[in-house]
Amino acid sequence: MEGFEAIVGMARAQHGLILRGQLLASGLSPATIQRWMDCGRLEAVHRGVHRLAGAPLTWDQRLWAAVMAAGGDAVVSHRSAARLWGIHDDETIEVTVDRARALHLREVVVHRATDLVDAHVSRRRGLPTANPLRTLVDLGAVLRPTLVEDALDRALERRLVTVHGVEATIEALARRGRRGVGVLRTIVDERALGRSRPDSLLEPRMARLLRAHTLPPFVFQHEVRHDGRFVARVDFADADLRIALEVDGFESHATPRALQSDLCRQNALVALGWTVLRFTWSDVVRRPEMVAATIRRVLGSRNSA
């Protein structure tokens, strides 16, 4: 019983999982391991990886089992790494191993690479995991560009990466035929937000809307000054035509004081001849055609004037 308690403690630290090698090192014989499997005390998850009966079945457990089965150099990567970093929500189990190894695991996507160096690996929830910069490149190989861009926006918002860091990683990993680099490079090149970090996911979505509807580029986070005095910073601006686009997320006007500040700022802009267009999350996400049409009408009116 004392030996079994030690095994339970070891498995508890590994989400209810234990390696066959750990069982043997604990003093169990192959015959005892087989007897435990026959009576349901142990369940085979992958070759050499067992789950203790009664251990909760979770996504984390599946991920741990994949890494334990893949062994030594295995690293959590792609969509699994993105989920661990909180930049994409997908339950696909993915790991990367050295290219020289051929490995097949049930319900696990196994990638092989030779350029996953130590500098690209961190630890997340106790597991070796591709860092956010490397993960963004890897996502370009398995996700649609729009989903990769969403992941990039979340990584920037959480301050997991910087645009400079992303660009440096692209250059470091770029080589002919390298999957994922081209997708991420295109996203970075097309971003209308420059090097400024978005305050929320709504601003990148607005930038994407402007590109998708072939509207003229607006400057992100433009600072308006009058006679050398700061007036306001607007989300998007065409300074020549004095058109400001403001996007209001769920947090906007959270207090009367915040609402009062926004109204004063808008009145100051209007007094200087600016047209201010405000759009909500619902407008940008659910009614992008309406948003684009409104902006195009104002642009046409200003150009005519």
Quick summary:
The chain has 305 residues and is α+β, with helices and mostly antiparallel strands. The chain has 13 helices and twelve strands. It folds into three domains: 2-57, no CATH class; 70-190, no CATH class; 202-304, VSR Endonuclease (Endonuclease, Chain A, 3-Layer(aba) Sandwich).
Describe the structure.
This protein is of the alpha+beta class and 305 residues long. It folds into 3 domains: 2-57, no CATH class; 70-190, no CATH class; 202-304, 3-Layer(aba) Sandwich (Endonuclease, Chain A), CATH 3.40.960. The chain is built from 13 helices and 12 strands. It has helices at 2-12, 20-25, 30-38, 59-70, 78-85, 132-139, 145-157, 163-173, 181-190, 202-212, 256-271, 281-286, 288-304; strands at 17-19, 42-46, 49-52, 75-76, 94-98, 109-113, 121-124, 127-130, 219-226, 229-238, 243-248, 275-280. Helix 6 packs across helix 8 and helix 8 runs antiparallel to helix 9. It is elongated and about 90 Å long. It starts with a helix and ends with a helix.
Features:
13 helices; 45% helix; 4-stranded mixed β-sheet; 3-stranded antiparallel β-sheet; 305 residues; alpha+beta; Endonuclease, Chain A
Secondary structure elements and their pairing?
Blueprint: H1 2-12, E1 17-19, H2 20-25, H3 30-38, E2 42-46, E3 49-52, H4 59-70, E4 75-76, H5 78-85, E5 94-98, E6 109-113, E7 121-124, E8 127-130, H6 132-139, H7 145-157, H8 163-173, H9 181-190, H10 202-212, E9 219-226, E10 229-238, E11 243-248, H11 256-271, E12 275-280, H12 281-286, H13 288-304
Parallel strand pairs: 5-6, 11-12
Antiparallel strand pairs: 1-3, 2-3, 4-5, 7-8, 9-10, 10-11
Helix pairs in contact: 5-6, 6-8, 8-9
